[in-house]
């Protein structure tokens, strides 16, 4: 390696002053002469700009806000409240009271409970104070997805103001959504025998996020003693929660891998549709019984009346009792949230003028009881009572027509029941109906026995329509 020190005179003349040659153990010998060195380029002296204006800090009294962080995690239903510390700094002798307010910067912030502590007047030489903005998100009637919400904390002394923004990552409550499935045969499911298609990729395939209460069969022999319809040992079997599978109202015994029944109803389709509205599991509670209603129909206590009655044309309360027992078992077992009631019934009350005439008040009483007596869940007691916001959804009855019978025209008595279904949103709060009038042959063949029952293709559509109706109720909350 050759290093050469040179000097350049003011006139630009070069003179060699020192040359140093270095080598190492791997060198192949020293160079025979100095390496040529090019004179450096002429460097112009740097120009120096005159200094700019130095900002002069204001001496006027003022204040500002600082948040310890701009992003926080708020978990739905979490106790205690989320505390966001905010610092108020005073400068240049600012004095006086400062009021704190919190503004929501996103449309979805309304359900978050926001409180803040007003900063008191600071005396003496105090120049700062720390206060907490408190945020809480109660569990609401509608399942949430993870999302963010923004808030602005604003401080004002009447003349001056300052603000700081806070972003909150909302995490939904980590418990299942629970739905009660009630009514008569079309809720049980009376499709064509052999129409269940539950293989991989088929429409009735179970989903691991969709569960059901494992219920005992609809057999009067299971309820042959007083109080049986309210007895947990009579209304469910172990394990209590299983993966939902058609037929929903058939049990899955521990020694079988799958249910043997080959017909379907609308429940599974409904549950699978609701999976798109939540990140949690969905649990279905099957409680329907074929041929039943509020009317006696010779079935005695096997009816849906909310309360005992002395009107002879009406039946008893056994099915309402059993439905509540099953619902409360599902709520207890899963610690989930009661999200809605799906009702398909009316045919059995359309055969008697007195039953049809009383249908509206009987249905209202039943919904009130379900909403009031359902076990209190994570939403708390405010979500219970006759006027609670648990959605109630009904479906219209079949208008099918094939060689086994024509149900396309209801007649005066059945029209009374149908009128209640279609006007349910005006009769019961937080309610809506699903219209199934078009689910008729030939596109949608009728189900088992006659066209009073929908077929499998219709049931799959009905489930999604129930889900759509329920979401419409949510949109109004």
Task: Tell me what the structure shows.
The structure is a single chain. The protein is of the alpha/beta class and 477 residues long. It contains nine helices and 19 strands. It has helices at 185-188, 232-235, 267-274, 318-334, 353-357, 359-373, 412-422, 424-427, 456-476; strands at residues 2-8, 14-21, 62-67, 71-75, 82-91, 99-104, 113-116, 128-136, 147-156, 161-171, 177-183, 210-215, 236-243, 282-286, 337-344, 392-395, 401-402, 405-406, 431-434. Strands 13-12-14-11-15-16-19 form a seven-stranded mixed β-sheet, with helices on both faces. A four-stranded antiparallel β-sheet has the order 3-5-8-7, with no helix packed on it. It has a four-stranded mixed β-sheet with strand order 4-10-9-6, with no helix packed on it. Helix 3 crosses helix 9 (456-476). It is elongated and about 100 Å long. Residues 5-12 and 15-35 have low confidence and may be disordered.
Write a brief caption for the model:
The chain has 477 residues and is α/β, with parallel strands linked by helices. Helix content is 19%, strand content 26%. The chain is elongated.
Count of DSSP helices? 9
Report helical residue fraction.
10-25%
Low-confidence segments, given as residue ranges, are 5-12, 15-35
Strand content: 25-35%
Report the C-alpha radius of gyration, rounded.
37 Å
């Amino acid at each position: 390696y050759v290093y050469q020190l040179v000097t350049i005179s003011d006139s630009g003349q070069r003179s060699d002053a020192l040359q140093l040659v270095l080598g190492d153990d791997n060198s192949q010998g020293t160079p025979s002469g100095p390496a040529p060195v090019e004179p450096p380029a002429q460097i112009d002296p740097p120009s120096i700009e005159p200094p700019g204006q130095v900002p002069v800090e204001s001496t006027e009294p003022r204040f500002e806000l600082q948040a310890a962080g701009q992003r926080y995690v708020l978990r739905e239903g979490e106790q205690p409240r989320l505390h966001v510390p905010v610092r108020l700094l005073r400068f240049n002798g600012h004095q006086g009271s400062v009021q704190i307010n919190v503004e929501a910067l996103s449309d979805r912030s309304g359900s978050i409970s926001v409180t803040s502590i007003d900063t008191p007047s600071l005396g003496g030489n105090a120049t700062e104070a720390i206060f907490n903005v408190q945020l809480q998100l109660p569990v609401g009637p509608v399942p949430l997805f993870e999302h963010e919400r923004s808030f602005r904390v604003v401080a004002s002394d009447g003349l001056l103001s300052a603000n700081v923004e806070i972003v909150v990552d909302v995490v939904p409550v980590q418990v299942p959504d629970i739905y009660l499935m009630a009514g008569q045969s079309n809720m049980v499911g009376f499709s064509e025998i052999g129409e269940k298609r539950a293989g991989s990729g088929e429409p009735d395939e179970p989903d691991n996020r969709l569960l059901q209460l494992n219920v005992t069969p609809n057999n009067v022999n299971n309820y042959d003693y007083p109080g049986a319809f309210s007895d947990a040992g009579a209304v469910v079997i172990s394990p209590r929660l299983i993966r939902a599978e058609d037929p929903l109202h058939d049990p899955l015994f521990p020694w079988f891998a799958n249910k043997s029944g080959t017909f379907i109803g609308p429940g599974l389709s409904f549950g699978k549709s609701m999976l798109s509205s939540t990140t949690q599991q969905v649990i279905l509670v099957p409680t329907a019984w074929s041929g039943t209603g509020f009317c006696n129909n010779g079935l005695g206590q096997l009816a849906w009346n909310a309360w005992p009655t002395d009107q002879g044309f009406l039946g008893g309360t056994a099915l309402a009792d059993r439905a509540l027992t099953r619902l409360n078992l599902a709520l207890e077992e899963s610690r989930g949230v009661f999200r809605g009631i799906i009702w398909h019934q009316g045919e059995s009350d359309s055969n008697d003028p007195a039953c049809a005439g009383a249908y509206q008040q009987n249905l209202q009483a039943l919904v009130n009881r379900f909403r009031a007596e359902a076990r209190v869940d994570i939403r708390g007691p405010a979500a219970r009572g006759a006027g609670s916001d648990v959605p109630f959804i009904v479906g219209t009855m079949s208008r099918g027509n094939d060689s086994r019978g024509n149900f396309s025209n209801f007649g005066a008595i059945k029209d009374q029941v149908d009128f209640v279904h279609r006007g349910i949103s005006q009769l019961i709060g937080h309610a809506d109906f699903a219209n199934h009038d078009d689910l008729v042959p030939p596109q949608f063949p009728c189900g088992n026995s006659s066209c009073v029952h929908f077929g499998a293709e219709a049931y799959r559509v009905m489930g999604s329509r129930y889900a759509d109706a329920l979401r419409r109720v949510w949109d109004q909350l």
